[in-house]
Amino acid sequence: MKSLALLCGAAALALAMTACQQAPPAATAPPDTHDADVKALTDVETQANSDWAAKNADKLVAFYADDAVLMPPGMEPLKGKDAIRGGINGMLADKALSLTFKASRVDVSKSGDLGYTQGDYQMTMTDPKTHKPATDHGTYVTTYRKQADGSWKAVADIATSGAPPAPQKHK
After folding, report:
1. Is residue 17 domain-resident?
2. How many Cα atoms are found within 13 Å in the side-chain-facing hemisphere of 49?
3. How many domains is the chain partitioned into structurally?
4. Spatial CB neighbours of 105, under 8 Å, sequence gap ≥ 6
């Protein structure tokens, strides 16, 4: 009987000591960089507008991550920097080219590694049929990934024309 009482007492003492131990310190939460990241994405797009105005192909290509996809209206997707460079160089060869865009929505994930912008664009290019400048407008969504150096690069960039589709020719 004494050993049962001794065993119960030891168990109670062990439980009491365990209950009194402090919990290990919680891992500190990463700093909240949401507002700074939103501003950084806004700044990236402001710079990209300047680079389009300057027709600076190298800076425009640097806007994209190596594995990015650019989906311009009326074109096949351009996958990777080499394809994006080719598409941008083709656009920049058009003397009538003008492209501006402005985000109406910018947000970043809670983890701070992904963000996106959504807004409107306006683009003027030479119409291949009429050889005259034609203006298009529409909407876009660009998804960004934060790089190891803290910069943001576009990983998916899609623009959708707001112009009505061309009429179908009937045979």
Report:
1. no
2. 12
3. 1
4. 116, 117, 118, 119
Q: What is the mean pLDDT of the chain?
A: 88
Structure tokens at 140: 């876009």
Residue 157 domain boundaries? 34-161
The SS3 of residue 148 is coil
Q: What pLDDT, in 10s, does the model give residues 62-75? A: 999 999 999 999 88
Please say whether the beta carbons of 146 and 113 come within 8 A: yes
What tokens were used for 37? 């990241």
Domain harbouring 107, CATH code: 3.10.450.50
| Minimum mean pLDDT range among 10-24, 91-105, 107-121 | 10-24
pTM, rounded to two decimals: 0.80
